[in-house]
Design a protein that fits this description.
The chain is of the alpha/beta class. It is built from 18 helices and 14 strands. The strands form 2 sheets. Strands 13-12-11-7-10-9-8-14 form an 8-stranded mixed sheet. A 6-stranded parallel sheet has the order 3-2-1-4-5-6, with helices on both faces. The protein starts with 5 loop residues before the first helix and ends in a 21-residue tail after the last strand.
């Protein structure tokens, strides 16, 4: 059972998921930035807002904090999957590879995709899952089932918020692919729903479970980098061919976001690991962000070279910066650099840098410089620090699946926490914080780089140290 008062239900019914979704495509509309009042005053004064002013800016808490709240222990985790495109199709197979997982329901607007994945479920020896393919809102029926413990969402970004909202409102834990929502008020809404209904809303950020990221995390917590000063993360991935493919992105929904927003559309892969290194929401907090964006030229140039006259893409006007560069400052004065670039030629990189008073790690390729181990400005061999690998990577040295195995590690750990009744490695406050650069970077670019206040989604509880990704083997 989940806690929900009649008033809560009336409030939930007043928010139309459909109306939120229908307006998502309007260029620049509905960002829900809330940049007036305390936020604007804080930005104008360098962000040095007093705690009383910060507290006055928080929406009234509607429930109790979800920090430190464990999952309910269960022998079998019953999963409903919404979205069976490239990502959902692949993750269905990973869910089926994990012990103690049963897929009970599948949802997609394309019946053939649901039937394809239902066949996989039956081939794995499980009962045939229920299928929800009756239009774009049929996910609401899946979320209302009584035999679903976790709703997994792998759909186009504009659907993430309404689907997570439906799951939480129906008393389900929900795991959402990146980003968890696209608007600031949606992030607050998910925080409130998680707290009111006592269910976790998890940003399924697989890069937090990368082998290098987890090793650096443990090294940072053991003090090898000294006092932490700065970090950097990015999503630099040439997606031009995929975004113009007629089949890869249905719609093509991802390319259309480049006609709507100017900022960092996908900050989580870089921000999540960096925030973990610095214990953001666990003793430190991200307080403000400033962003600059380059001109938007790459997609139009690619279209001119590769797309025939009359292709629907010629009706599109691209506004998304080819490269956005953001600086995030924390309450302790540390700096995190975030980059987003998917519209130009560039080898894949998440940058992944951590620096402190004793040295620095830089990825792509991985290299390290720590005192007293290194000297004379010569990079050292990061592999020599393998003893600092997280226990998950020691236990699963050669995990299945793509992205170097981090997808499997992520799902294994989530399922483990849910079956054993453990506190998740990260929670709705992390999901909201890691996603906040989506609307705030756009606002900063429009304001010629003016800093934007990052809300304190924890409502002051970030000051308390607590466990996170650097977990102990159960």
């Amino acid at each position: 059972m989940h806690e929900s008062a009649p008033q809560d239900q009336r409030e939930d019914s007043e928010v139309s998921r459909r109306s939120v979704l229908r307006t998502a495509g309007a260029a620049g509309a509905g960002l829900g930035l809330g940049l007036g009042g305390p936020a604007a005053a804080s930005a104008a004064t360098g962000g040095a807002a007093r705690p009383a002013a910060e507290e006055a800016a928080w929406p009234v808490r509607q429930g109790r904090t979800m920090m430190g709240v464990p999952f309910e222990r269960r022998d079998t985790l019953r999963v409903g999957i919404v979205g069976l495109g490239n990502r959902g199709d692949y993750m269905t197979e990973l869910f089926l590879s994990l012990p103690g997982v049963r897929i009970v329901a599948l949802c997609d607007t394309v019946r053939e995709k649901a039937e394809k994945n239902a066949a996989k479920v039956k081939a794995a020896g499980q009962p045939a899952p229920a299928l929800y393919t009756n239009g774009e809102d049929d996910y609401e029926q899946l979320c209302g089932r009584g035999d679903v413990d976790l709703v997994y969402v792998a759909t186009p970004w504009e659907w993430h918020f309404p689907m997570a909202e439906a799951a939480l409102t129906n008393g389900k834990h929900v795991g959402v692919e990146c980003p968890v929502a696209m608007e600031l008020d949606q992030l607050w809404r998910l925080v409130d729903l998680s707290e009111r209904h006592r269910r976790h809303c998890i940003q399924l950020e697989n890069c937090c479970y990368g082998k290098n990221e987890m090793r650096v995390l443990r090294m940072a917590h053991e003090g090898l980098f000294g006092d932490l000063l700065h970090a950097a993360g990015a999503y630099i991935h040439d997606l031009r061919g995929l975004m113009f493919s007629p089949t890869y992105y249905t719609g093509p929904w991802r390319r259309l976001w480049h006609t709507r927003l100017k900022g960092d559309l996908y900050p989580n892969h870089g921000f999540g690991p960096a925030a973990n290194y610095m214990d953001v929401n666990r003793g430190d907090r991200a307080v403000r962000i400033t962003t600059f964006g380059s001109p938007s030229l790459g997609l139009a140039a690619y279209r001119a070279q590769h797309m025939p006259a009359g292709d629907p893409s010629w009706k599109e006007t691209y506004v998304e910066s080819d490269m956005s560069i953001s600086l995030v400052q924390t309450a302790k004065g540390r700096v995190i650099r975030l980059e987003h670039a998917v519209s130009n030629p560039h080898p894949y990189s998440r940058v992944n840098i951590l620096g402190g008073t004793k040295g620095v790690f830089e990825d792509y390729p991985p290299r390290i410089y720590l005192e007293p181990d290194m000297s004379d400005d010569e990079w050292g061999d990061f592999q020599k620090y393998a003893r600092w690998d997280h226990w998950l990577w020691k236990e699963h040295a050669d995990p299945p699946g793509g992205h170097g195995g981090m997808d499997y590690i992520m799902l294994f750990r989530l399922v483990q926490c849910m079956r054993l009744g453990l506190v998740p490695d990260f929670d709705v406050y992390d999901a909201a914080t890691w996603t906040a650069p989506v609307p705030l970077s756009t606002a900063s670019i429009k304001a010629k780089g003016a800093p934007q206040e990052i809300p304190d989604f924890t409502r002051g509880l970030w000051r308390k140290a607590r466990p996170g990704m650097d977990s102990v083997k159960p």
